[in-house]
Write a structure and sequence with these properties.
About 40% of the residues lie in helices and about 20% in strands. By secondary structure, it is an alpha+beta fold. A hairpin with a 7-residue loop joins strand 5 (about 110-120) and strand 6. Helix 6 (about 155-165) crosses helix 7, helix 6 (about 155-165) crosses helix 8 (about 190-205) and helix 8 crosses helix 9 (about 230-240). The longest helix has 15 residues, at about 230-240. InterPro entries: NT_2-5OAS_ClassI-CCAase (IPR006116), NT_sf (IPR043519). Keywords: Antiviral defense, Transferase.
Length: about 250
């Protein structure tokens, strides 16, 4: 079996149904009443986002991200919005896990990341959201993120690197990972396995010093989401991948 066939087989096994009748979409109707109570009349919309919407999801990862858009006149601070949602999900009987900009809950066997944000105005899709790690807020546009990644032509390579990340237990935020793959493969014309290998080489050679910006807000430096030590852990894992004798040592 060729390296390309091996990776394509894994990706086929890990494929996620993102169609309109996907069972995972039903989790939104399950938790929407809870979110509406928490939003107290300020809810603008709830929609799939993240890997599910971008086409970079794997079956063994988070099943769906739900972007929770609040109106621009929501009175609470972004930190209060985040923490109140965390408390609300606990009160509703879930066991929420606080992450950087999202809150993870298990709903009917599915892993769901909730991303609360407040619209900046009534016209654009620009939102402000809380960044827990930095204890600050940032402006972003999820619609821009979805378009940038889903139309990149690199979703297979991204999915392969995400599987490697998960299986090696690496702390590598998904959007940071996705943008890093795009940078690593700029103008690349190789096969799937050649491109994934090129990403590992980039992680070894250039990742530590690379400055990665949010395409929806150049003041939001995505690469600041990890410390130098955390980035070094990712680089070292890439070095081990490049030293592997077989693809089965890298991802399964």
């Amino acid at each position: 079996m060729s390296a390309d066939d091996y990776l394509k087989g894994i990706l086929a096994r890990q494929a996620v149904d993102t169609g309109p009748y996907s069972p995972v979409r039903a989790v939104q109707s399950v938790i929407q009443p809870i979110i509406q109570q928490w939003a107290a009349g300020y809810l603008s919309s709830i929609s799939p986002s993240g890997s599910f919407a971008k086409g970079t999801a794997n079956h063994s990862g988070t099943d769906i991200d739900l972007f929770i858009s609040l109106t621009q006149n929501t009175p609470d601070s972004l930190k209060e919005i985040y923490n109140k949602l965390l408390r609300k999900m606990t009160e509703a009987g879930y066991q929420p896990k606080a992450q950087n900009v999202s809150i993870n809950v298990q709903v009917n066997g599915y892993s769901v990341d909730l991303v609360p944000a407040r619209r900046q105005d009534g016209y654009s899709q620009d939102h402000s959201l809380f960044r827990r790690r930095a204890d600050t807020w940032t402006k972003t546009n999820v619609a821009t993120h979805i378009s940038r990644i889903s139309q990149s032509g690199r979703t297979q390579e991204i999915r392969a690197i995400k599987l490697w990340r998960n299986q090696k237990g690496l702390d590598f935020p998904s959007f940071y990972l996705e943008l890093t793959v795009l940078d690593a493969l700029f103008n690349a014309r190789g096969s799937l396995s050649q491109n994934v290998w090129k990403v590992f080489e980039y992680l070894r050679n250039s990742f530590l010093a690379a400055r990665v910006m949010d395409p929806a807000n150049t003041n939001n430096i995505i690469s600041d989401d990890l410390t130098a030590a955390e980035k070094t852990t990712i680089r070292n894992a890439a070095v081990r991948a490049l030293a592997a004798k077989d693809w089965s040592e890298i991802v399964v």
